[in-house]
Amino acid sequence: MSKNPLKLKALLIDLNGTLHIGSDPTPSAVQALTRLRQARIPFIFCSNSTKESSSSLLGKLKGMGFEARKEELLTSLGACKMLVEERGYKRPLLLMSPSAQEEFASFSDSAPYDSVILGLHPESLSYEPLNRAFRVLKGEPLSTQDSEDRPKAEPALIAPHAAMYMQDPGSASLPPGLSLGIGPFVRALEESTGAKAKIVGKPTRSFFELALERLKAQGGEEWDVREVAVVGDDVENDLGEGARELGLKRVLVKTGKYREGVERTTEYPPDHVYDTFANLVDDLVQQ
Fold this sequence. Notes:
Blueprint: E1 10-13, E2 20-21, E3 24-25, H1 29-38, E4 43-47, H2 54-63, E5 73-75, H3 76-87, E6 92-95, H4 98-101, E7 115-118, H5 127-138, E8 156-159, E9 165-168, E10 177-180, H6 183-193, E11 198-199, H7 205-217, E12 228-232, H8 242-246, E13 249-253, H9 262-265, E14 272-274, H10 277-284
Parallel strand pairs: 1-4, 1-12, 4-5, 6-7, 7-8, 8-11, 12-13, 13-14
Antiparallel strand pairs: 2-3, 9-10
């Protein structure tokens, strides 16, 4: 069998569910990533995680044994920050964990808010904080003093992604399995306020275009987009929309939130299906 029969020259790799689940690597994923580096196959980590900042996520990966570099990581939170900067927002209301809020440390965290950004953080998605977000988007006061100095433009609703569910590693109260993502909360704010959320993470075209720019920044040869694959455990939220529009190869792995047979029932089946990320690397880097 020939080396690299898939004819792929670069990868855009999902993290949670593909390289790891919670704090545990998927089977042989650490070794597989090392083999990719040794074979000089470039890659970008593409994460929709909204629970932690980029620096925290890098530390988590290193703690699991993965070699991970800042320039190789593109997160949906990072894409949110870029959008906020591009549009000139100064005061985003952040519904996310303290770690995730570190990504936005350069912005003011006080009213009047000009935007709302959601992350996956249970304490931030309960009634009180969601109602604050609702009031910001509807132009309602947050305090008795909040009647003056409101933003001239309507506040924006921004979401890193809109996945309806995720693979949960489990907790003291629940075993491992699927749990709610931020998608239902994004939808709730859209329906109640009439706002249309700007989604910036996977699977949007703009996110994958940013990832391709990161690949080019690593130097080396130019690739045909058909020689680049996005790898993930969610056929819609990892491999959908933008990946299809750009013509990226789409590789589904049977770990994380994958459920048996989903590749046969989706409207747009993936190009390839592997049991694990390591099995994909076996085909890319053959001894």
